[in-house]
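DM from R.C. (forwarded with permission)

"hey, sorry to bug you on a friday — could you get me a structure for this? deadline for the figure draft is monday and I only need the backbone to look sensible"
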Amino acid sequence: YEPLKKYVFLATAPMASVSEAILQYLSSQKKSRLAVVYDSQNAFSLSGWRHMQRLGEKYGVQFPSAEEITSAATDFSTVLARLRQTKADAVMFWGIGAASIAFTKQYKSN
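My reply, with the result:
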């Protein structure tokens, strides 16, 4: 494996930065209700969700629903039904891998 450039590295952004950027955007769009779905077995997901909880009040964002899933989940019909009931302005999915693809497809078709 040869890198593209000798001293170029790629790393994911810190979850605190990602969470804050999302909340800043929601606030700028006058959106104050964010439903969250997060993978309870993934450090990336848990970190992002914890940072959001800590920063939500700063940006005037409430979390009417926080749905816990696992990365092995494939059927999100129950989660999506609960999300619809919250009348949230937006939904944040903290997850990776196959579960994120399945959730996105089911969310789109729902």
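R.C.: lifesaver. The longest strand covers residues 34-39.
me: no worries. The mean pLDDT is 92.
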